[in-house]
Amino acid sequence: MNDVRGKEVAIPRPPRRVVSLVPSITETLFDIGAGADVVGVTDWCIYPERIGATRLGGTKNPRVDEIRELQPDLVHMNLEENLERHARAIEEFAPVFVTEPKSPGDVAGLLRQLGAIHGVADAAERAAAELERELARPALPSFTFVVPIWRAPWMWCGGDTYVSALVESLGGTNALGDRSRYPSVELGEVAELAPDVILLPDEPYAFRGDDAIAIGGHIPARIIGPFPGHLATWHGTRTVKGLRYLRGALGVTPSFLSDTSGRGRR
Q: How far apart are CA 57 and CA 46, in angstroms?
């Protein structure tokens, strides 16, 4: 099977000793019935709770020697979240399957791919079908948005990010959609773009209430958050949860597009 790199990975049978270096993939494997085969995860793999697998470090600094000791027959990695040098090192002793969905629609394909790899196609198909039903729901009234991901310097999700695609699938237009990846843009410049909504996830930067106040002092937009960042940044079975949360949050005040005073922020 080809991974996102276009590299053919030989998987002759469902793997039974799996290492996941992607928190969202870890959760997804458990949700579709392949969790019993997961023997190693990152320190950031928090779902499901109380995972019994060996902890192997972070997504950017996994302990490769300890991964080798687990003798995995497959290691899951993500093109953006993990580092290429770690993938090369792991490939010396185990097959590595790299993924990177760009949009919620891509996630449906990812779910089916994981189902085929791990011998749980029926459960994966149910999860993919649920996601596709959620994506088929009518879009919300059009709105523009921005999503900050860092402070000092202020950084934002550009138009070619998964987070942007997730919100766009609900009817939004990224006011920074012409920027690539995660541009550094000062608050004053973002204010000139006059976004209707600012979505404030608590990861990768741990935004707090005072950050929302600081942003609101410069940009007269409705602020949603801080909210659990994994609802916007994790892909897999959590994508449905993220879509439903954002749809509910954005739809709480149907007339929010006309409210630029800052009242009613949540």
A: 13
Cα angle at 199 between 195 and 201, to 5 degrees? 155
Decide: helix, strand or coil at residue 156. strand
- 235-261 in b/e form (b: 16+ CB < 10 A) is bbbbbbebbebbbebbeeeeebeeeee
Q: Return the amino acid letter for 66.
A: E
Report pLDDT digits (tens) over 187-209.
999 999 999 999 999 999 999 99
DSSP character at residue 257: G
Alpha-carbon gap, residue 253 to 259, rounded angstroms: 10
Domains of the chain with bracketed CATH: 18-127 (3.40.50.1980), 140-251 (3.40.50.1980)
* Dist CA 215 CA 160 (whole Å): 23
Is residue 236 left, alpha or beta, with left meaning phi > 0 and alpha meaning psi from -120 to 50? left
Q: Which of 136, 129, 116, 115 is nearest to 31 (CA)?
A: 115
DSSP of 22-82 = -HHHHHHHHHTT-GGGEEEE-TT--SSSS--SEE-B-SSSB-HHHHHHT--SEEEEETTTS
Encode pLDDT of 16-42 as tens digits. Answer: 999 999 999 999 999 999 999 999 999
Half-sphere exposure of 92 (CA within 13 A, CB side): 11
pLDDT in tens, 52-75: 999 999 999 999 999 999 999 999
Q: Quick check: helix, strand or coil at residue 227?
A: strand
| CA gap 116, 60 in Å, rounded | 27
Gap between the Cα atoms of 159 and 174, Å rounded:
6
